Amino acid sequence: MMRRIPLFATLVVAVAVAVMIALGIWQYSRAQEKTAVIAYYEQAQGNSAPVPFPQSETESEAALYRQSRVDCAEVLEQGAIGATARDGRKGWGQVAQCRLRSGGEAEIMLGWVLQPGVRPWDGGVVTGTVAPAGMGVRLIADPPQAGLAPLARPDPHNLPNNHISYMVQWFFFAVTALVIYGLALRARLARKDDGG
């Protein structure tokens, strides 16, 4: 009996495997890009020349991990988020949303405290490092404000760079699909050989 490989199923699996391999290669290129970005931010971190606090997405990219200075004319809101002290202890970072004297707003991490709660702060001039904050940036005060302890310095190595693990996953999925299809095809052909 002539063995026939199902053309449509083989084509579907081949396309799926090709897509998975392409996604794995894309994740590898993303890993290389992220490594270059981290290296760029490391150089920026070593640049002691201050930059104006960014007020746009374009300015934010150029200012990350650089020193900056703001003049908080009015504290709009205060709160606390989980944070790490410079000495490695876990606790709370005091956050203030400010209206700047120069216009615009800035989020400022004032400093670190062990227990949650808000230390009153009236604003003023703050120096520190521009760091990522969700979809925007914030200033990590250095020296800290409101009698708080210093926060851990922003580190570009904390940026997520898990693209290599995604690449491995996509390649694993491709191999798995080939193995499963190969086993299913072998079982199908064996049934045909047996007259099933």
What can you tell me about this protein's structure?
With 196 residues, this protein is an alpha/beta fold. It has two domains: 7-37 and 161-193; 66-153. 39% of the residues lie in helices and 29% in strands. The chain has three helices and six strands. It has helices at 7-45, 57-63, 163-193; strands at residues 51-52, 67-84, 90-100, 105-113, 124-133, 136-141. The chain has a five-stranded mixed β-barrel with strand order 2-3-4-6-5. It is elongated and about 85 Å long. The chain starts with 6 loop residues before the first helix and ends with a helix. 20% of the residues are buried. The model has no long low-confidence stretch (mean pLDDT 89).
Features of the shown structure:
196 residues; five-stranded mixed barrel
Quick structural summary:
This protein has 196 residues and is α/β, with parallel strands linked by helices. It is built from three helices and six strands; from the N terminus they run αβαβββββα. β3 and β4 form a beta hairpin.
SSE layout and pairing:
Blueprint: H1 7-45, E1 51-52, H2 57-63, E2 67-84, E3 90-100, E4 105-113, E5 124-133, E6 136-141, H3 163-193
Helix pairs in contact: 1-3
